Amino acid sequence: MTVTMVYDLETIPDIETGRRLLGLEKASNKEVAEAMMARRAEQTQGASTFLPHYLHRIVTISVVVSTPEWVKVWSLGDPDSSESDIIFRFFEGVQRYTPNLVSWNGSGFDLPVLHYRSLLHGVVADRYWETGEEDQGFKWNNYLSRYHQRHTDLMDVLAAYQSRAYAPLDEVSIMLGFPGKMGMHGSDVFENYEKGNLQGIRDYCETDVLNTYLIYLRFQRIRGRLDKTAFDEEEQRLRSFLSASGKPHFLAFLEEWK
Questions:
Q1: CA-based diameter of the chain, in Å?
Q2: Rounded to whole angstroms, how far apart are CA atoms 23 and 172?
Q3: Which pTM does this prediction carry?
Q4: What CA–CA distance (Å, rounded) separates 150 from 101?
């Protein structure tokens, strides 16, 4: 059975590591985050305050999973699940189903963050890390090599692997008639986390992963993997799932989906 898992994650600054790096044991979370970003601005000579991958802590991973029988959208774990549990659940899905992974900028951001955080928590994921030593089928098609297809980074592929051609998910989604960002932006995640709005972050991440999945269906159509009938059926399956869920953010997404 072919399984496709489209994923997206949301992160906040790794405050615990930031405290140790900067010697700010008595500072508030906000003060530590601001100091971490100020340090990053200094390192980049003011070009960016965006933290390096190893200083991101994962608070949500949302997925769209599609099989020949069904399609579902959800966030892994519960709002109060630990980071290690969320990461474990992600790689458990890879271990169990060996899905085709799909992302938007997953190669550039999401996967490196997952690697560092797995290292921190000791999350074992041998199927994900397989490159052909134990399973020869992974020698020429695995999750880690850039041009292999067990992981498709849509941003990378659509830009023909040229960084100057990269495009933001939000704007490509809107170009194609999809809702784009809903509820918040990535820059709002830490503030919402501090306010305890984990559910809002999960809802936001789920709408992001929905946009990615819809772009992936278009990609499968232009590369001839879905004919017109199959493409329409896949979109209708998703519409039916979102409608039946009754969840406000899914219904709002449907309303905006042209």
A1: 60
A2: 42
A3: 0.96
A4: 6
* Closest C-alpha to 226, from 213, 239, 211: 213
Sign of CA dihedral 20, 24, 25, 27: negative
CA within 13 Å, CB half, 33: 16
Domain that holds residue 77: 4-157+164-256
22-64 residue pLDDT tens:
999 999 999 999 999 999 999 999 999 999 999 999 999 999 9
User: Is the distance from CB of 4 to CB of 100 less than 8 angstroms?
Assistant: yes
Band of pLDDT at residue 186, cut at 50, 70 and 90: confident
Distance CA 131, CA 142 (A): 6
Per-residue pLDDT, 107: 97
Place of tokens 């232009």: 222
> Tens digit of pLDDT for each residue in 161-181?
999 999 999 999 999 999 999
Tell me, what DSSP letter sits at residue 136?
G
| CATH code assigned at 138 | 3.30.420.10
According to the model, what pLDDT value does residue 180 have? 96
Q: Quick one: which of 19, 46, 41, 42 has its CA closest to 32?
A: 19
How many folded domains does the chain comprise?
A: 1
The encoded tokens of residue 222 equal 């232009």
* Identity of residue 91: F
